[in-house]
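Hi R.,

Here are the chain sequences for the assembly we discussed:
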Amino acid sequence: MTDLLRSRATALWLVLVSLTFLSLELLQGLTFGGNRRAGTVAVIIVAFAKVRLVGLDYMELRTAPPLLRYFFEAWILVVMLAIILISRPVMP
Amino acid sequence: MQSAGTEVTERAAVRIPGEAGVWVLIFGDMVVFGLFFVTFVIYRSQNPALYGHAQQLMNQSLGVTNTVLLLTSSWFVALAVRRARLGRSTFVPVLFALAFACGVGFGVTKFLEYGEKIRAGLTLNTNEFYTFYYMFTGIHFVHVLIGMGVLVCLTFISRREVLTEADITMLESGASFWHLVDILWIVLFTLFYLMK
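And here is the predicted structure of the full complex:
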C-alpha cells in the first residue's frame, strides 16, 4: 500500500488539489486587489493546467500516439484562449 | 530475444490507453462541451451584470467539494489501473470502489446544491445564467452517472484472479472515460463558480 501512496499519481493529486485551493486564493486576491482581470485570467489558466495534468498523466496521453496528444493539447489551447479572449468582467 | 525486448519497450513507450473507439467518444464529447463553454462565455460577455449577480448566489463551498471529490476519484482510478497493469491485484477493486464512493459523494452534493437553489427560487427559467447552469451541470451529471456504472463494471472485472490483456484494456477504457468526467467538471467549476 505504501508504494501506492508514494507514486507519481499521488504527488499529482496533491498538486491538483493545491491548485484548486490556490484558485480560490487567487479569486480572493481578485476581490481585494486592484487588477481583477489578471486574477480571472490566472484562474482560467490554472484550470486548464489542471485539465492538462489529468489528461497527460491520469489519462496517460503523455505516452499515447502523437495524434491523440496533439488533439488534446489543441483542445486545451483553443478552448482556453477562446474563454480568455471572449470573457468580460462580470462583477460590479 | 533482444528484438522482442525492444518491441515491448516501444509498445510501452507509445500506446493508446484503452480501446481506440473510447477515444472517439471522449474527443467527441470534448468538442461538444468545448462548444458549450464558448457559447456560455459569449452570452456571459453580452450581459455581465446579470451573470455577475447570478454568480454571487452560487455556493462555492459545494463546488470546491465536488472538484476535490472528482480529483480524488481520478487519483484512485489512476492508482488502480497502474496496479492492475503491474499484475498486483490486491487493492485494485477497493480503489475502484473508493472512486465510485467519490461519485456518490458528488451526486449527494449536487442533489443538495440543486435543492438549495430550487428552494431559493433559482430554477431553469430564472435567467440565462441558471438555464446554462442547470443544462450544462445536468448533462455533466448524466456523464457522472454513466461513469459510476462503468466504475461498478471495472470493480467486478478487477476482482478476477488473473487479468488478461483484454481486461486491462477494459480497465483503461473505463478509467479514461472517468477522467473525462473530471476534466469537464474542472472547466464547469471555473466557468460557473470562479470566473469573475
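The mean pLDDT of chain A is 88. Residues 2-86 of chain A form one domain.

Let me know if anything looks off.

Best,
T.
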